[in-house]
Prior knowledge:
The chain is 27% helix and 22% strand.
Amino acid sequence: MIRWKMLGAVAGVAAGLGIAGHTGGAAAQGKKDAIVIGMALEPPGLDPTIAPAAAIGEITHMNIFEGLTRIRENGDVAPLLADSWTVSPDMKTFTFKLKSGVKFSDGTAFDSADVKYSFETYAGEKSTNKRKAVFANMEKIETPDAKTVVITLKSANPTLLFSLGENTAVITAPESAATNATKPVGTGPYVLENWVKGDSATLVASKSYRDARAIQIKTAKFRFIADAGAMVTAMLAGDLDAVPIGITGENVPQFEKDKRFMVTIGSTEGETILTMNNKRKPLDDVRVRRAISHAIDRKAIIDGVNSGYGKAIGSWIPPHDAAYVDMTGKYPYDPAKAKALLKEAGVSNLELTLKLPPPPYARRAGEVIAALLADVGITAKIENMEWAQWLDGVFKNKNYDLTIISHVEPNDYVKFADPTYYWQYDSKAAQDLIAKADSTLDKAERVRALQALQRQIAEDAVVGFLYNLPRIGVYKAGVTGFWTGAPIFVNDLSAVSWK
């Protein structure tokens, strides 16, 4: 997400991804300082700096872990662990003044050494941080005193302040970092009370938090309910108080008509795509990828998956972004064109694996896409996978032909510059455009580079573009403070309360 208005405000000035057991909902129990939240996915761990799953941040970001900056619901950047900052005119030197009186939940003090340790670790050779490139671009990190951090970049980064507000940039301490995946220790308003694998994770308000009295929700249970129908049932039964994302479109009307609930509809950074393994034959032939793109009926997918909720996309970067280019006309639904391209490529009786992760949108879209591909002579063999299987087999080891997923990270167009990323796209043209977009300080030039990148990605039919993932939230009446839109996937509990 491009936030140029942010840059003008801060440059050179101080700135301000099973259901078991039963737990009654907070309102049903009469407790107005507790909440039960439904989530479709269980995270593989609780440290967002070492694994890519968005579900990690939905539990821990801004709750257990904090960063130097905070991303607001509208995408603007505000102070968090940094009280203020100044930025050099060339966007290469960032000086942060840190907040005083901050402690980690284990009682250790937070200071500039923790910032230096965190960022150098995320840039390190063994780092698995999905934003590693952001930290590798830091030439040096100086700590002239306990409350000051000076970061000098190798190349200018006009979106650094936004990146430092993502969950990949949260500050951790050397004393506890090694066990953060299971025993997270941060500076945020909550601590992990327990994690019952396959069921739930419970956070409780931290007694050592610097502003503990301002936290109204004292206990928050995140229940993991992978089945969409079970999620709806649990909400209607009063077992859940909130489902910020996870209710599918066809269920919206019944919640909207029920005075016990409130429904919100917002946008996200989620580009929902049919990923194609660009190094797998015959998907290494652009004609085959273009054929698959022409076989996709986006309207049928949006209607079949989400009852019409979601906006069709034809390239990368979400529709609400200032640099967005509508490329949906590049590959209109055209089965005849798809068949012609396959014939031109010498491909017939093609069989491909379609490996699907757990989210309902992926499973539903998989059924629709398999039928659409069958219409043009492609057999897509569906294989449903658990989240850990998908992350290891598809995302990490690239053992797949096709898959479906929503990419929800802001500014993740940078993945098209990485030939080792799981779609294995290798284009010097795209790499050059991304380098230009991420180094120029000129707003118009950056927008032009990103628009050219979208056209290049569409021309190469890197993936099959489907739709922008909507954020459908359902809450019990009286719950307030959850975001409607999602520039990042986070549930900031410090802003949540019962009316």
